[in-house]
Design brief:
two-stranded antiparallel sheet, 4 helices, single chain, mainly alpha
């Protein structure tokens, strides 16, 4: 979790409670509009998931391709979920 997260969580809560538009709230509170949007969007991600994290996938009936931080993985239809889990575990350690 970022050191800025609690600060931005508080700012976003204050904006929501204000009844103001984002632009008006940012002006009144001397907060950069685009920075505010960045943090609002980032904190709306499920469980504040950091970019570059892998998530669990189910059995695919069609081929899928994954890309994360420049690593590409092509998974054919009917793949072995255990093997994919092993591959993702190795990539997480990298």
């Amino acid at each position: 979790m970022s050191l800025h997260t609690p600060e931005w969580t508080d700012k976003i809560a204050a904006w929501r409670n204000s009844g103001l538009s984002i632009a008006a709230w940012c002006r009144e509170n001397s907060v950069g509009y685009h920075r505010f949007l960045y943090w609002r969007d980032r904190l709306q991600q499920p469980e504040h998931q950091e970019p570059g994290k892998f998530v669990a996938v189910g059995l695919a009936t069609t081929p899928i391709s994954l890309e994360c931080n420049g690593i590409f993985v092509h998974v054919p239809a009917g793949f072995d979920p255990g093997l994919l889990g092993d591959i993702l575990s190795l990539l997480r350690r990298g």
